Structures are given as C-alpha cells and as structure tokens.
Amino acid sequence: MRPEGDPVTLPLWRERSGWLFVLLAVAAIVAVLHLSGQIGGGVATRPHPVAPPADIVPDVLPMELAPVTEDDARAANAKIPLITKDFATPRPFVYAGDGDGRSRARDCLAAAMLYEAGDGSKGQFAVGQVIINRARHPAFPKSICGVVFQGSERSTGCQFTFTCDGALSRRYSDAAWTRAQVNADMMMSGLTYPAVGLATHYHTDWVRPYWSDSLEKIAIVDTHLFFRWPGYWGTPGAFRGAVSGSDGPVAKMAALSPLHALALGVAPTELAGVDANAALGEARVIAGAGEAAGRDTIYVALDRKAAPESFVTTALRLCGDKPYCKFMGWTNPTLKPDSDAMSDMQRAAMTFSYLRDDKAGFEKALWNCSEYKRDDARQCMKR
C-alpha cells in the first residue's frame, strides 16, 4: 500500500497510450455525431445562409425537391434553426384597382390559398401573406396573378405546385371556394397575417427544396415552414414595390373563374363545371309559346353578396343545354317580374342578363354597370 496523498508515477509508455486512447475516443464520438447528422440528408448544424448582395436583386429558384424520404426531410428540416432576430411584420395591403381586374386578382389569390393550404383560414392567410409579400418584392412579378402563376408554363419551374401539377382539374365545393374568395378579399383589403412576417418562401415539412439552405427559417405554421432571404432582401426596405391594380386574365384560371374566361374570349358554356350559385329562392321560368316555343325566359333574384361573375355560372346552370335561353336577374327581389310583362322601372333595375341563341350563334352576358363596375364597357347593359 502507498501512503495517502503519495503521487503515482506511471511508466512513460502507459501515459502516452492513455492519451492516445482519449484522442481515439473523442474522434469516434465526433464521427458518430457527424454520421448521425447526415441522416435525413441534413447536417447536425447548418452554417448560416450567406446574404445576397444588397445591390443585386436575388434570383428566384424553382421549386425543385431533393430526393429524400418524408421522414428524412422532416428530420433535416427540424435541424434548420428558427431565426427570430429582426423579425418584422408585414404592412397592410390594399389592392389599388377595382372592377374586373380586382376580381381576377382575388380569384388568383383565392385559388392559391385554397389549393396550397386547403379549406382552412389559418393556412390560407399564411399562404396569402407570402403571395402579397412577393408582389411587393422586386424579385417577383408585380401583380397578384403574376406571382401566383410565375413559371407555371414549365412543369418544373412553377413557384406554386398547384399551377403546374394538374391540381386545378380537381374542384372544391361551392362553399370552400366561396370561403377562399372571402379570405382573399379580406387580405386585399388590409388584413395581414403577422405570424409569417416577411416570408417570401414556404414549403411543407416533409419535403426538402434545394433553396431552403440559402434562406432563413422564420416561422412555422402547422406543417408549413416559412423563409426569408438573409440580409437586406429580407428586411422591410425591400418590400416597397408597387403592385398592379389591374390583373389580366390567366388561361389556367378560365375553368375556375368566369371573369378570367370572359376576358380571354372563352365561351361561358365552357365554364359549366365551375361551382357557383348566386340565385335566391326559386327561379321563375316563362316558357315561350306559339312561334316563341322553346324560347324560355328565366327570372331570378340574385344574392347581392355573391361575386358578380357567379351570375354567369348561375345562368349556365339554370339554362342547362337549352339551345335558346334568356336569363335575367335582380339583386332587388321586389323588382323581379312575376310575369313576362316588365315595367321600365324593373328593366332599369335589372342586375344581370345572359342570352344564348345557338341557332343565331349568339351568346352574351351583361351586367348593370351602375351596380357592378366592369373594366370592359362591352359587358355593360345599355342605358
């Protein structure tokens, strides 16, 4: 036995082998941690993204995904740090235009909100805020529809997958579409969704876009992750661009939005699959008699709160496949005629009319433009 406190002297070779063992153990631990970080296609710690130069507008990369499993993507996405420093909330946005341009923009925004987030307001508002953020940012198109359908002409270049993966061929219910339109209208009238800040990108947590490593993750809403550019292009100063107040038609919206179809010169009969019904109560059908046999006239009370383009789909639904159909609607139900006799007051108060005459090759929809402004004067009733 050695006296207590007496130091132990080890042979030199044993001392060196002890240090060698420690170094090997540390190296093994580091290797294990590194390998475990590779699971899921990610790394244990991700270097902070490099900010693009402040004097060069950053490129917008397509939504291309890394070939990883959903579980691996979730694991890798979870390792991306959530950046809370310099988090800024968006300013309210009010669409500058009105009439058809505004309605087309609303429908583009509503389609993105519904097809990207489903029928739930929380997710829809988050998606809508990203679209509005993009419209204000110089890296993106300067209109709502332009942002939504950017790159949609290419199967791998679209920014929002629903615009190029065939999702628009699937129809939601009338109620779901109307809710999305209402939510879109609120966002175009000043409503903001502060939770996603100035995010310009997002994706679900079960995919890994290649661009995610170059951006800062700043918000999580349910299963969606939201990102901004690091540096100047993710700060409020970059979101000062003017947004168009007159959105043009988009061909891919024609089957969903009558106003897009009409502006493109698409026959309203091609819109029969669009779900919309603005009729209130029972329609009154006046059947043609004698020489006018088969020339039916339909009188309808219309919902004043309904979107004006829904009057077209209401007319199409009620006219069915009749070769001749005259449809007339009033938002003031007290002025809807009870017979085929119509007073001057009732005629002046008419809100919408639709006439189809297949024999004459004629089909036209007209609005009372003192009640519903139209960008195209040819869609206005003559007064």
Automatic annotation (TrEMBL):
This is Cell wall hydrolase. Keywords: Hydrolase, Membrane, Transmembrane, Transmembrane helix. The lineage of its organism: Bacteria, Pseudomonadati, Pseudomonadota, Alphaproteobacteria, Sphingomonadales. Gene3D superfamilies: Cell wall hydrolase SleB, domain 1. GO terms for molecular function: hydrolase activity. Residues 118-227 form the Cell wall hydrolase SleB domain. The chain crosses the membrane at residues 18-36. It comes from the Bacteria.
